[in-house]
């Protein structure tokens, strides 16, 4: 509490300084500061500043930087501590690059300290092209991981921000990409408050994220970047957000060109600014001067917005002597250092998810192999390492290269692309399946085949991305594209063991692969060091520990229409069909026993509950277990058991560790039809284990989570 009060006092100091500076500006000068490319005001000593920067999984778009695994891959680690460590590493490189660029007078786009990351939208539908930018389908997990990432980016200095993070895209935003500039996401109050807003609240209220970015779409008729409900009523008034709000890029023109809620640019900028949008990524705010002249916006409202923007710049130390700012001394040699590369490899290793391991075929023993076949369109594809919103690595290690490096000269590695990622042939003018004869030759020589299939960012991404092969970047279905399934069948016919390395940023309906492959290893856009991490895991130097942050469905038929934003039938929380691979699922090479799970009270109180248990590594490898806690309200019409707690435990063989997890009272709350968050009287099941309590997870793991019960004897309303 003392630290919070101290931070509030420091914030007040910056606000006063910002207001004093802004009071000396003309209206036109103030408006010039509300564009992402803010102009210099030489007479006041204000340098030009470009607000637009990205750091989804590393400093992006500004040259060399560590390229960590894509966000969805990092979510698979189920490791909040790791997320903060990554955020801290990113902001270290950010400061190092910023210091060097400033010394050279470089104030270009992507060169500032205001990063428009993380993306905490809920990955409600696996067809959405931008889902791999998110932290998965669960609101609680997204909030916890996003919070720690923000903590790492912004740092813990009592006076200065290390960098400024941004929670995006606020809110109810997850496709379709090709409709986003005119789409109205209709959503119930229950789904709004139970699914789409909780992660934003966590980042605003708990992580004190410095910025929030509005989404392109409308929500229940209001464009997000000018929504009185979302911006004024909820973000500013209910949650007390005191950072800056930015529009998504060129989103304001959608008000009159796509959403048709205003008559033109003057009305559009007035709607945005009057409801709390401070910064325009784009250039439409040049109409603000006319809006003020017409009385549509008061100059005081403009002033308040600019004060918020300068408060952020001052919190970053941009108007203080360099010697007073502790991050000014971060030197450029921290960028892409050996330390950063080692961290990147460790992170990548934590993100890999083992989905199938028939007869414990993995890990492979290289000493018993003479030749390994590596086949598939993703085996030597650099694009699958990085996803989108990426920086530039000084070295990329594909799966093929990782296996070649790992095995060296001791084991022959033979390679075939096998098929194109999505076309029927690899070479132009060739016949369909023009690499299948080569595949047969590789299989005949190999003791085992490592088959690399899936997607890459050319098949799933943002509307407007280069090389999008599908509509707007969204997937049309959940199938492996092109001839990939036929390639799997061809490799299977060889009779050789088949290890599938599935590389994609989203779920695929790989039912055939689940049936035919001897092992299935998921590597979701694993970062520049991804190929090395995959090799070290396949051959047993690393024990897989990842868990699915998304549901793998069996078929498109299991999904509601893409444009339906109701949560009914979506994600593990509301689905009624059986998953192929469930949320929270992942196998290990070693074994774990969870014993003695107990709650400190059977009667729910305002303090929530504490769960204690012991975790033991019963196998022969060092590994990490992910303890997961799910809560189910035992009354009709409630969601499936929902993740509300987790703990990562790394153990040597034979080692035990006691674990205590606290669930606050809010973990037992559900939203009613009005959106109120309530803990109702009754019985609640609390499941403690290494997976969900669903039957499919139990069948895949052979283990059943421990069920505990607690009772609420009264009703509580929870602030949301």
Question: Overview of this structure, please?
Answer:
This protein is an alpha/beta fold. The chain has three domains: 2-18 and 28-334, TIM Barrel; 346-564, Glycoside hydrolase family 3 C-terminal domain (Rossmann fold, 3-Layer(aba) Sandwich), CATH 3.40.50; 592-718, Immunoglobulins (Immunoglobulin-like, Sandwich), CATH 2.60.40. It contains 21 helices and 24 strands. A hairpin with an 8-residue loop joins strand 17 and strand 18 (642-651). It starts with a helix and ends with a strand.
Which characteristics define this entry?
720 residues, alpha/beta, TIM Barrel, Rossmann fold, Immunoglobulin-like, 3 domains, six-stranded mixed sheet, four-stranded antiparallel sheet, 21 helices, 24 strands, 29% helix, 17% strand, globular
Query: Mind telling me the CATH superfamily name of the largest domain?
Result: Glycoside hydrolase, family 3, N-terminal domain
Radius of gyration from CA coordinates: 26 Å
Overall number of domains? 3
Q: What is the number of helices?
A: 21
Q: Kindly report the spatial arrangement of strands forming the biggest sheet.
A: 9-14-13-12-10-11
CATH architecture of the largest domain: Alpha-Beta Barrel
Total DSSP E strands: 24
At the fold tier of CATH, the topology name of the largest domain is TIM Barrel
Oligomer: single chain
CATH class of the largest domain: Alpha Beta
Q: Cα distance, first to last residue?
A: 21 Å
* Parts with pLDDT < 50 across at least 5 consecutive residues: none
Mean pLDDT: 96
What general form does the structure show?
A: globular
* Helical content (DSSP H or I, runs of 4+): 25-40%
